[in-house]
């Protein structure tokens, strides 16, 4: 069986590797990751991902010239990214207050995802403003 990258692999080896990754997902450095940290990281990733979907819908609406729909999608994206941000803030404040917090690569990934999608939303908002302004200018020229 040819694996991506051109190397030969035995059938089932990808399934075995996936199983090992799942088994190792909860362990880092020989110990288990804090279940709360994993849950919070996954919630941040999921809410941020939902925000990205809303942002993509907004960009589609902008491309179609439907600024009202774009604005609605961006409001929904804001709400979703705010949920993710609140979880992150709660984790950070808890750690500062002395609560057990197990910073790990999954939480770092969640923070990176949150920051990246927040940036995408900010750019989409700016694009919406720019295209709305162009639309207004065109309407004035068409009169």
What does this structure look like?
- By secondary structure, this protein is mainly α.
- Helices cover 77% and strands 3% of the residues.
- The protein has helices at residues 13-25, 35-63, 67-96, 105-142; strands at 27-28, 31-32.
- The longest helix is centred in the C-terminal third of the chain and has 38 residues, at 105-142.
- The termini are far apart.
Short characterization:
The protein has four helices and two strands.
User: In angstroms, what is the radius of gyration?
Assistant: 21 Å
Task: Give the spatial strand order of the biggest sheet.
Answer: 1-2
Q: Number of helix segments? A: 4
What shape does the CA trace take? elongated
Which class best fits the helix and strand makeup?
mainly alpha
Question: Approximately how much helix is present in the residues?
Answer: over 70%
Sheet-strand content, in percent, reads under 5%
Alpha-carbon distance between the two ends? 65 Å
Task: List segments where confidence is low: pLDDT < 50 over at least 5 consecutive residues.
Answer: 1-11
Q: Which H/E pattern describes the elements?
A: HEEHHH
The number of distinct β-strands equals 2
Mean pLDDT equals 85
Major sheet description: 2 strands, antiparallel
List descriptors.
2 strands, 4 helices, disordered N terminus, 3% strand, 143 residues, two-stranded antiparallel ribbon, mainly alpha, 77% helix, single chain
Secondary-structure map:
Blueprint: H1 13-25, E1 27-28, E2 31-32, H2 35-63, H3 67-96, H4 105-142
